[in-house]
Amino acid sequence: MTEALRRDLRRIYDAAIAAVAPGPLIDRALDGSIAGAESIPEQLRQAHRILLIAAGKAAIPMAKRLIARCGAKLDTAIAAALDDTHIAGLTVIRASHPMPDAASMGAAQAALDIARSAESGDLVIVALSGGASAMLAMPAAGISLDDKIAVTRALMNSGASIHELNAVRKHLSSIKGGGLLAATTADASVLTLALSDVIGNDLATIGSGPTVADPTTFAEAVTIMKRRKAWGRAPEAVRDRLERGVAGEIPETLKPGDPRLGRSMTVVIGDNETAVAAAERKAIALGYRVTRWNGLSTDAESAGRAAAAELMRLDSPRACIVAGGEPVVTVRGRGRGGRAQHCALAAALALASAAGDEERRDAALLVAGTDGIDGPTDAAGACVDTTTVERARAAGLDAERALARNDSYTIFRALDDLLITGATGTNVADLLIGIVCA
Predict the structure, then answer these.
(1) Crossing angle for the helix pair 272-285 and 2-19, to the nearest 10 degrees
(2) HSE toward the beta carbon, residue 11, CA cutoff 13 A
(3) What is the mean pLDDT of the chain?
(4) Which domains, ranges and CATH numbers included, belong to the chain?
(5) In the predicted model, what is the mean pLDDT of residues 128-137?
(6) pLDDT at position 332, please?
(7) How far is CA 137 from CA 35, 176, 332, in A?
């Protein structure tokens, strides 16, 4: 039964990924059939030229479909991406994630150059997806790339949320927090199509909001740095810039009400909810009674244990829980893994405890990133069941110790429990899917 459950988990996950494939979502947006996109067909008709900037883990497929749809009006197109796939008419810059590199700076400079070249009547299309913050990186004056990397790494290792991370990054950048929009000429229009990896779709957080208003402030950035105990470890240039910003010596990021926002429009073409809804539909089609669960966007270990407990409480003969979000890991050990794998290992430990109950139920649970990449590993996540911990013990592995050392990958690789998909070409945060049968 367990293998059958694992097969169903993969089928549900695959259906969710298919629902957020960038190409069809771009088509719907350009046709005006997505909420908020009704005016896009007219914008395309009126544009003298179209200039394209794509960035993120889905940059290549988003740009490819946009190039095909924009036709002869397309003048220039660049993509900051994780690979350098050749696409006719597209300049691809292979940038880095999760930490920016010199190529990320080159991509940001190219994006700013395109924005500055836009003329009256032109339409600048910005295609954003998860990872864009790292792939378009242009440190503010006086800040080096190494400075930004040091701050980003400190915040990520402290368990900072994506909202916290981006609030700080925007105040150390020349392109984030509305910087790209500010670089465009006064009469050019900007259309941002976002494949959102941010739960709640906060436009200022997706890609660190290069074309939208930023409600955060220098003061908030300092508060976040101190709360996450990163202030004392931050480079002097970073602390100096943030303190000068608080003192009003450096202009703030683009703020709500700025008149430049009147020529900018953003449409979210797909998000985590799109994937979760597709997962739910597939699970129902496979004969499961589905329950939405909303506890994934919290501490990864707590989320895994809570999800397992929720799953085992369901009373239907064939039951499923589906959740979307982004768990957070505070790194304490020197092991290898990612937030999805860490969450899955915690769930496996909870399932092992529940398996000792009088009424035995077969259960399996999958936690994975929709981009196919979980942390610095080759896995999207992991699939666990009520036998995972027992199998680990038989192999001489201690699951509890691995969890404490942030070493989930080692356990799952030895047990063949990793979910390895390769890059999916999309990114809408993470999914948790659990199924149980009496």
Answers:
(1) 140
(2) 15
(3) 95
(4) 2-12+273-437 (3.40.1480.10), 21-138+173-216+253-270 (3.40.50.10180)
(5) 95
(6) 84
(7) 30, 8, 28
User: Of the candidates 378, 300, 325, 380, which has an alpha carbon nearest to the alpha carbon of residue 10?
Assistant: 380
Tell me if 149 sits within 8 A of 100, measured CB to CB.
yes
pLDDT digits 0-9 by tens, 174-216:
999 999 999 998 789 999 999 999 999 999 999 999 999 999 9
Distances 54 to 124, 144, 342, 390, 409 between C-alpha atoms, Å: 11, 24, 31, 46, 32
Q: How far apart are CA 220 and CA 168, in angstroms?
A: 8
The Cα–Cα gap between 155 and 138 comes to 18
What is the value of pTM for the model shown? 0.93
Beta strand ranges found along 251-299 (DSSP E): 264-270, 289-292
Q: Which of 161-165, 210-214, 327-331 has the highest mean pLDDT?
A: 210-214
**Statement: residue 323 has pLDDT above 50:** yes
Partnered with residue 50 across adjacent β-strands are 74, 123
Alpha-carbon distance values, 73 to 33, 43, 47, 67, 70 (Å): 22, 12, 8, 10, 6
* Residue 355 scores a pLDDT above 80: no
Q: Is the dihedral of CA 151, 156, 160, 164 positive or negative?
A: positive
Euclidean distance between CA atoms 222 and 228, whole angstroms = 10
CA–CA dist 54, 253 (Å, integer): 22
Q: Pull the structure tokens for residue 95.
A: 């940038």
Residue type, 251: P
Residue type, 56: G
Q: Which two tokens stand for residue 211?
A: 């074309």
* Nearest residue to 192 via CA among 81, 269, 77, 109: 269
C-alpha 27/C-alpha 351 separation (Å) is: 42
214 residue type, one letter = D
pLDDT, position 358:
45
Beta-strand runs (E) in 72-196? 74-81, 91-94, 123-129, 189-195
Per DSSP, the three-state class of 345 is helix
